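Predicting holo structure, iron/sulfur cluster bound.
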Amino acid sequence: MGMTMTQKILARHAKIDSCAPGDLIEASLDMLLGNDITTPPAIDIFEKNGFGRVFDADRIALVPDHFAPNKDIKSATQCQKMRAFARKQNLKYYYEQGQEGMGVEHVILPENGLIRPGELIIGADSHTCTYGALGAFSTGVGSTDLACAMATGQTWFRVPEAIRVELTGKLGKYCSGKDVILYLIGRIGVDGALYRSLEFTGAGVAELSMADRLTICNMAIECGAKNGIFPVDEATIVYLRDRVEGGYTKAPDWLYPDEDASYASIIQIDLSEIQPQVAFPHLPSNTKAIGTFEKITIDQVVIGSCTNGRIEDMRRAAAVLQGRHVAEGIRAVILPGSQRVYKQSLQEGLLEIFVDAGCVVSAPTCGPCLGGYMGVLAEGERCVSTTNRNFVGRMGHKGSEVYLAGVEIAAASAVLGYIGSPEEIL
Ligand code: SF4
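Done. Tokens:
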């Protein structure tokens, strides 16, 4: 039987000719990721087991992004531990706050050229699935798996079944990859792709930017998927060309799915039929199209994160906020996803637009996305956020509410003071 993209990557990294859903395999890893929450316990396990040296100091990326720049003594101690480990192990990819290449982990790994099509990546963070946008297999693991993988360069997988998502058409105004994935999760539910691979395909793929694809794969985990993955096309090659060391011109021939690959189900989505989506509390699947619900007043807007903190997102936000001001009583927090995005935003005059509009502009950090800092919500407060989770208490008090949306809806809502569309102000 033929194989899907995911199955081919797993088989190749397990050094076997083929694999099928349900098989248990042990595979070699191309890149490992840890952050300031998940790496310290992994270091403890690594040292407790006497592992000594990491398998390859050039294949581990450690990113202090969740509570960094440090918000308190505990977070400072966690980062200190990670920094000391990176130095001791002479890790090539340890990213210090403020330095070139630093930012939120899932923004910077692709941006820094650390991901290539056909690679196998694990990260001790559930949104590691982001890198499927580049035709790689990537998935989240726990700190114990990270510790063992740092020592051996290998880990085990149960080969997932695949769902084929066929995309046609073209996105309409004020719609982006965020609306595609919210729409999909709204259709299939938060467990609709449980331990399955979401393989995107169809003519609609070419209509999606790399930023759209990164956002879509970022949220694959929000419907339970093991990974999300896009085929490599011209847009992927252009994205990689100047980022990857030595340049990039062609994906491996073996990477494309076989014609007789088997899928657990097929979902068809016409991109032109998607309206801007809002996921109501407290699940990403509680989606409604903009304009189909009563007026909901808000207290805060957050634009950024590993889901929507790229330069394309900053440009979309600025296009809505330029010459406007956030509504009275509304806090708008904007977090460029990396130092590069920050600098590019500065050079393009976007930061000035944000500041003139009355927004807080933060250093690249996860910050408010997980209720860490830089925008924690009080009881009863409502926030429109471009992040990826709206669970109870995700961004602060358990009595607060998070509404997930794309960048333009978030920016327009900041100006309106309620959840609305740019149509109402432009
Ligand atoms: Fe996790 Fe949010 Fe940071 Fe993304 S931005 S890695 S979802 S905490």
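The CA atoms of residues 145 and 371 lie 26 Å apart.
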